[in-house]
Each structure stands twice: as C-alpha cells, then as structure tokens.
C-alpha cells in the first residue's frame, strides 16, 4: 500500500537537486507554451506519468501510432513491472502557473517488447489502448544532432503535471541546446548532453529537436550536463517491434 504527499508534505521534500537542475530551474507548465509554442504543447500530450508499483515515478511517451510506449530500462525491465505500472495520460495543469489539472486518463502497462540495460530503454504496451489514442504520439529523428541544436524536454519531474524544459540560463542563446553530440553514457558516444533542466521522475522523457519537433534522445542521466541516449541507436534495436 502506498500514498502520495499532501501539499505541505511535498513542500518539505528536497527538490531541484544540483545533479539535474542546471542553474536556475527554467521548466514551465506545458500549458504555458500553448500560445507561444503550440507545436511543443501538442507534442507534450504524448508524454505520460508512470507510477510504478505504487511508489516509483518515471516518465514515458507514445512511440508512433501503434500501441507502443518508451521509458528507461532503469524504470521498467519486465512485463511484470509493466503490469504493475499506472500510465497517466493528460496529467497537465489547466492554467499556466495554476494548480488545477485536467482529468487524467489512466491505463495499466501490459507487455515489455524490448529492453536494453546499456542503452537504458524499454519499449512496452498498455492495456485499453483505444482510450489513449487521442493524445497523439511522437516520431524519431534518426540523426546525430550538431552541437548547439536547440532542444526541449516534456517531462513529469517529481511526478508533477507535465512541464517543458526549453529555456536555459546555462546556454548562451537562452534555449537549452546540445552541448556534446558524442557524450558517453553507459557506452562510449551513446548519448547527447545538454543543460535542459530535469529532476527525479523525469527519467524516460523524450529529448526533442526544436527544429524538427521529433525525438533525438531518451533522457536518462543527470549531472549538469544531463544526457539522453541517442534515439538512432535505440531504433536499430527496436525497429522490428514498431
């Protein structure tokens, strides 16, 4: 049995750890981008909150039009893990800076189709897929980006309603961007690094190119720079499952 924290209890929890918040915390509620970047806002609807076994939090997102979602291997490994995972769609604030949220659509995870520890990904399905089709999906950008390419990351930091990390006080142009396109994660050159702000619970978030609005990497590490596994490497492992 598990329960969440009240607002007062949550305020006392440690947040904004220096391992993932780089400089000041520049993340904003997804709905704050509804007018100023409507494409980023629409893409954020495909990003979901994971509540794993009642007490662990991660982020995931829909991959393509079929019943496929992706998160980190360090979040979900087996179908038994997926089966005990609540997948929350539309867990977003209704107003920028507000506290009320839209009514979420919750389904259960189902089967793990592919997973890899070194590339730190898990591809899985959900039950009752027809209930969540309307929230859209993301597509892959199968290239290695250049240093300086601008990014944004829709995510559920600390299990909160969807936030987007896009602006950055650690990047010269004010938008978070690729710091190193050949960064070492669990394997040499497996990641790209960036100073987009993330927190615990953001693991499994999509790292999206601002130029193409497609996914370049799967976020998994903090450390300033933070980093995500290159999606082209993951695609080579999962393309037969899509």
Nutshell version of this structure?
The protein folds into two domains: 102 residues, Thrombin, subunit H; 82 residues, Beta Barrel (Thrombin, subunit H), CATH 2.40.10.10.
Describe this structure in words.
This is Serine protease. Residues 1-25 are annotated as: Disordered. It comes from Phytohabitans houttuyneae. It holds the Pfam family Trypsin_2. By secondary structure, this protein is mainly beta. It has 2 domains: 34-135, Trypsin-like serine proteases (Thrombin, subunit H), CATH 2.40.10.10; 151-232, Beta Barrel (Thrombin, subunit H), CATH 2.40.10. Helices cover 10% and strands 31% of the residues. The protein has helices at 7-11, 38-44, 79-83, 231-238, and strands spanning 28-29, 47-52, 56-62, 69-71, 85-89, 105-116, 121-126, 151-155, 163-165, 178-183, 191-194, 206-209, 215-221, 226-230. The strands form 2 sheets. It has an 8-stranded antiparallel beta sheet with strand order 1-9-8-12-13-14-11-10. A 6-stranded antiparallel β-barrel has the order 2-3-4-7-6-5. A hairpin with a 5-residue loop joins strand 12 (206-209) and strand 13. The longest helix has 8 residues, at 231-238. The chain is globular.
